[in-house]
Amino acid sequence: MNVADSLSLFTLEKRPDFVETDFIGDIVQRALMYLRAGYPVHFSGPPGAGKTALAMHVAAQLQQEVVLIHGDDGFGGADLVGDSNAYRCTEVLDNYVHSVVKKETRLVRHWVDNRVTWACRHGYTLIYDEFTRSRPETNNVLLPVLEERLLALPGAPQAERYLPVHPNFAAIFTSNPEEYAGVHRSQDALTDRMITVQLDHHDAETEIAITQAKSGVGQAEARALVRMVREFRALFGGARPTIRACIMLARLVVMRGGVVDAGDPIFRKICRDVVNIDLSRGRQALRTCAQDSIDHVIDACCAHGAHDLPGDDEAAEAGDPQALRQRPACAGMEAAA
Fold first, then answer.
1. What mean pLDDT do residues 163-175 have?
2. What is the domain partition of the chain in residue ranges?
């Protein structure tokens, strides 16, 4: 039953570019506490909240091998636990009597473990990324694993129908909100067996540190780009753009010489392309206003020298209301949603 070569089995180490601020460190320590107490952890939040990176970082702290699954609507139970989908062939040739040849062939169905069974059997860490992309009935096989620490294998030989879960087994799940395309609503019985850590976008200082670590851009430039992306996010009232937009912009800035300047027409076009705010819907007047809002944000956050100033939040805390720039009147309207 050695199927390690065909499974996503690997050992994780902390990535050198993983940023662990106080904000991230608090989440990591809580997750480790839950896992060491024997409870599965579920990171839930919008795209760009760092769910998968957090799951892999936490798994690395457990210092054991990892099995990785990406949720898929086409999965069935066999894709998680395995199936009797192989055969063992035994052939016997009897030529004891010289003039007679007796041949006997036997085909026996052979059980082959899949990822969940492999992790449960050997005590690995299971990362089930975006598990709600798999259908709820497929994930039902996890119910006794997370509660009774017992894995049911209905297709296995009679003596192996129930597999006790290894004491070192740990499970980390991630998921996007239910309203996202391709996401199924998870059954309450499953989420009730997990400890769910709700994630949102990181605080500004964490996003700045991540942008620097992933791109090599300077702190002042990273601060300007993060301020701009966060302002877009607040302006148009959605989950996007995410920290990924900050990283993309920062890498492009580094490639072009490290200059963040709203007066550079190429830089402005790059900002529009990366941020990718959809202005195709809504009335023409609102679209025009939204375009003006985008230009206003780029000018306010990325004008030459602007990224050397304190951020809006810092200015407000310092008691300087004049430092807060006013958004255009159409800010927050649904025209660009």
1. 95
2. 4-77+115-198, 204-336
